[in-house]
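protien #1 (seq + structre)
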Amino acid sequence: MGRASRKFVFPVLGLLCLVLFYSTRATGEGSANQSRIDHGRQLVLTHGCGDCHTPWKLGANGPEPDSSRLLSGHPQELVMPPAPPAQGPWLVNASATFTAWGGPWGVSFSKNLTSDKETGLGNWTEENFIQTMRTGREMGKGRMLLPPMPWPSYQHLTDEELKSMYAYLMSIPVIKNKIPDPVAPSAPEPAKK
């Protein structure tokens, strides 16, 4: 190999080594992030998040989750009438979509868990999400989460599990879907004399 060839080969080899180093490093980071997202997906599926946060529809075999609205919460176009009053041992009512719930707390609507910045979790940080699950308060300091949200059981998940759930929620398709505000419980009827 001639002297001119060596001058060319060594810088090219050095550049190739740098490219391989950084691409391997980026791939490692990417696969670690994908692993976290995959773990988060498993946790979201096994902890029943979609049971209330994905609207249900009537399918060929009866009620089924509407996968086109994955984790988007109560459908904004579905305006609910007042919830029926609780009677006897039946203290809770649910909409056919399983996204609106009535009970002694009033009426609650399942939140949009997609990363839409206006109507979902898009402005939430990982820390906001973790604090919400730990405290039962929106963004860790806002209003209390309402039934049927099972945050008392979610508060026992590890930080790593909650970070994985958050990573998965930030990775799913964005759906713009504004959820109604909760409805306070009706005042009790005055007792008749």
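ok now protien #2
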Amino acid sequence: MSIHKDIQDYNAAQSPAEQRICDALAKAIDRHLPGAENKIWHRHPVWFLDGNPIVGYSKLKDCIRLLFWSGQSFDEPGLAPEGSFKAAEARYTSEKEISAKDLKRWLKKSAAIQWDYKNIVKRKGKLVRLK
């Protein structure tokens, strides 16, 4: 699946350095999660498998944050816990900080290890492991 035009527009709206980070992340995610739906969701680029959010990124004040919804279950160095559920993040201020090897491994785990965020509201905030 190709990268949605809205995501391309999101990336193009960033500063040149941030745009390079966003473009590198989008290309890697698209390459390593073939068939994942991608779109702007809650104003940020997000990739979904079977309607479940898997990975996305967003512009923060001083960096680009890469977020894996189920990332705390990956047991991976380089990913920090984020929020009160199972998400984990990596933050980048330069494209050079992105490790293609780590990113590929994290993306592989993101498809294999999933918590059901798609139905979290229906389950009143309770997460259930899918894979």
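The helical segments are 5-12, 16-32, 100-112.
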